[in-house]
Amino acid sequence: MTSLEELIEERKDKLTALKEAGRDPYPSASTRTHRITEVLDAFKPLAQEETTVCIAGRIMAIREHGGSVFVDVDDGSDEIQLYIKKDILADDAFDLFVNAIDRGDFVEFTGTLFETNRGEKSVEVQSWKILAKSLRPLPEKWHGIQDAEKRFRRRYLDMLLNTEVKERIRRRARFFRSIRDFLQEKGFLEVQTPVIETTPGGADARPFETHHNALDLDVYLRISAGELWQKQLMVGGFEKVFELGRIFRNEGMSPEHLQDYMQMEFYWAYADYEDGMRLVKELFRYVAQETYDTQTFSINGFDVDLAGDWERYDYVETVKDMVDIDVLEADT
């Protein structure tokens, strides 16, 4: 089996071949005209009008068939197949592609659209341009990165090869955007409060400590999303505020408990807990619909319907029923 070092040396030789052929292996710009998702969305009219498109992306697969090559390219928006034929490209351009381009390279392709006999939407390549020569090979596409530690230490490769990971990142962005949209639509003002504090407050947790050199002062990373600061904003006359930001807790960690994570807190004047409960219920329903396009979930064996009735529990009575303690009368 070829070692990683040997593969890198082989790719360095190909890098030299590109330079000797007069190709800049790391140009500063691309002349891309369409993202792949735009090509696929408007494929039929673009193909009928024989529109020349220029796409760019990372090569994910190369399949040679005699005097032709099929290439799968991904630009982050989607993936498309390209068809490179020797009698369309100049001989030197075709041979250079076959001999110097690898899976993982970033390449720009110009051509027209067509569908294969199997109905595969494709680009017939008229010319190509190297954008970035990759010196390290990608992991095998279909098996990805099997070692869990490598996956978490090299998340960029996991994102590249695992569409579910990539979609999770997009879904996370939709999640936080929907929170902002909902609260702003309800008249809440988004604020940013200090992350470094002289006294950590708003929660009970072990903080991260650091030192402010300019002030010669020990300080802490916040353990809540600006609770005390937001309350000062209310004193200052702001009726509805919220913050969506990073907080830090120097405590245990697990797959579901990080030491730094995003948290949202809101504060609302002239409202009581009943108003807060109604708002949170609306918020959950809105965020679920915007993020997952559904309000029905199966979570750890439980079926959850956010659109259904929400059962209310009396805190004092629930604790009394479960552990036979009246929290209103119990000693600390």
How would you portray this structure in words?
With 332 residues, this protein is an alpha+beta fold. The chain folds into 2 domains: 129 residues, Nucleic acid-binding proteins (OB fold (Dihydrolipoamide Acetyltransferase, E2P), Beta Barrel); 128 residues, BirA Bifunctional Protein, domain 2 (2-Layer Sandwich). Helices cover 34% and strands 27% of the residues. The chain is built from 10 helices and 13 strands. A 5-stranded mixed beta barrel has the order 1-2-3-5-4. Strands 6-10-11 form a 3-stranded mixed β-sheet. A hairpin with a 4-residue loop joins strand 8 and strand 9. The longest helix has 23 residues. The protein is elongated. The termini are far apart. The model has no long low-confidence stretch (mean pLDDT 93).
Question: What layout of secondary structure does this protein have?
Answer:
Elements: H1 4-20, H2 36-41, H3 43-48, E1 53-65, E2 68-74, E3 79-85, H4 91-100, E4 106-115, E5 121-132, H5 148-153, H6 155-161, H7 163-185, E6 189-190, E7 196-197, E8 209-212, E9 217-221, H8 227-235, E10 240-248, E11 260-268, H9 273-292, E12 296-299, E13 302-305, H10 315-323
Parallel strand pairs: 3-5, 6-10
Antiparallel strand pairs: 1-2, 1-4, 2-3, 4-5, 7-9, 8-9, 10-11, 12-13
Helix pairs in contact: 6-7, 7-9
Shape: elongated
Name the CATH superfamily assignment of the largest domain: Nucleic acid-binding proteins
Which percent range fits the helix content?
Answer: 25-40%
What is the mean pLDDT?
93
Q: Radius of gyration, Cα only, in angstroms? A: 28 Å
**Biggest sheet: strand arrangement:** 1-2-3-5-4
- Derived from helix and strand composition plus strand pairing, the structural class reads alpha+beta
Whole-number tally of structural domains: 2
CATH topology-level name of the largest domain: OB fold (Dihydrolipoamide Acetyltransferase, E2P)
What is the number of helices?
Answer: 10
**Major beta sheet summary:** 5 strands, mixed, barrel
CATH class bucket of the largest domain: Mainly Beta
* Count of beta strands: 13
Q: What's the N-to-C terminus distance?
A: 67 Å
SSE run: HHHEEEHEEHHHEEEEHEEHEEH
Residue share in β-strands:
25-35%
The name of the CATH architecture of the largest domain is Beta Barrel
